[in-house]
Write a structure and sequence with these properties.
Layout (H helix, E strand, L loop, with lengths): L5 H5 L26 E4 L3 E9 L24 E8 L1 E10 H6 L6 H23 L12 H4 L5 E3 L11 H9 L10 E4 L1 H14 L7 E5 L5 E7 L2 E5 L5 E2 L4 E8 L10 E6 L5 E8 L5 E14 L5 E10 L4
Parallel strand pairs: 1-12, 5-15, 6-9
Antiparallel strand pairs: 2-3, 4-14, 6-11, 7-8, 8-9, 10-11, 11-15, 12-14, 13-14
Length: 320
């Protein structure tokens, strides 16, 4: 007598489905969770940077030596800066039949909305490093585009004999001056952080177990490494080039304190801040419902002394 087959048994037994979606598209960037966002009214923020201070000069007393030098009469000069908000958008379309008949374990609409929100956040993070309005006018300018030339430290690239060093990291930290020298973050791709860990192991006197606990925007906490009391945030949106020899950038900076005069800040609309969701309703020509997600955002470096980077540091492989 034949026993019950697996095929027959499966006809009356459904395998359990775990609610929720396990993420497989992930780019590590905890700094996005702690980046301050400044809400602005209007579609752009205007601010003014000091360019040159008004001239002064020593002067004598009496006897014709009290003529005011020309250098004492030069005025202060300034550089106006405009940072516009840019729009990100995503439409979640779900067939009404699917939405109403196949939502037992997972809301079909809810899953699509969450995925669109994740996509908006990922695109903002990409532009935070790589955005370039001269290539795509719809993007905001990211750190690579906005980095002041005077704040770039040459990492030597593939021609460097020593590659990335702790001395370079110290030089980078010293370049941040806008917040009385306070440095709020170091930021690097994972491969650069692994190079940093190797430098600590080689130094013999440094601890590789020094971590700080940070609080993310969702209220959760996460441990991050730190150097000289400065948290090191992994950001895998930072490009790595090369094969045998790998080259990447390492950033340092400070966050703006709300004064709009120091450091770095994300920007978003004060009217509808962050990612906001609108139920558009029924599509006219199809049996779909439409949910629209928008994110009006940008990024500002208020003081150019609040950001710096080691450019093209060799973090892996032999020098060319």
């Amino acid at each position: 007598m034949a026993s019950l087959t697996l095929v027959e048994a499966a006809k009356i037994q459904q395998n359990p489905l775990i609610a929720g979606i396990i993420e497989s598209i992930v780019t590590v960037n905890p700094m996005y969770q702690i980046l301050p966002f400044d809400q602005i009214v209007g579609n752009a923020l205007l601010y003014t940077r000091e360019n040159a201070i008004g001239g002064v000069a020593p002067i004598g007393t009496g006897g014709g030596s009290n003529t005011i030098p020309a250098a004492a009469k030069t005025p202060a000069t300034f550089t106006p800066v405009t940072t516009p908000l840019k729009a990100l958008i995503g439409d979640a379309l779900v067939d009404h039949f699917i939405e109403t008949t196949m939502g037992t374990q997972n809301s079909q609409k809810g899953v699509q909305i969450m995925s669109k929100a994740k996509g908006l956040g990922r695109e903002y993070q990409r532009q935070f490093i790589l955005g370039d309005s001269s290539v795509d006018p719809l993007e905001y300018d990211g750190l690579e585009k906005l980095m002041p030339t005077a704040q770039i430290i040459d990492g030597g690239g593939s021609s460097s004999v020593t590659g990335f060093t702790l001395d370079l990291l110290d030089e980078l930290i010293s370049s941040i001056k806008s917040k009385d020298g306070q440095v709020d973050f170091l930021m690097a791709h994972d491969i650069a952080i692994r190079k940093y860990m190797g430098l600590l192991r080689a130094s013999g006197g440094a601890s590789i177990n020094e971590v700080k606990t940070i609080t993310l925007s969702n209220g959760q906490t996460q441990e991050v490494m730190y150097y000289r009391g400065i948290p090191i945030y992994r950001n895998d949106w930072i490009p790595v080039t090369g094969t045998t020899t790998k080259i990447t950038d390492v950033y340092a900076g400070c966050f703006d304190d709300g004064s709009r005069k120091v450091g770095l800040s994300g920007l978003t609309s004060a009217i509808q801040s962050g990612i906001f969701v609108t139920n558009v309703g029924e599509a006219e020509d199809t049996n779909d419902t439409i949910t629209r997600l928008r994110f009006y955002s940008s990024m500002a470096i208020f003081s150019e002394l609040g950001i710096g980077k080691i450019n093209d540091a060799r973090v892996f492989g032999p020098a060319a």
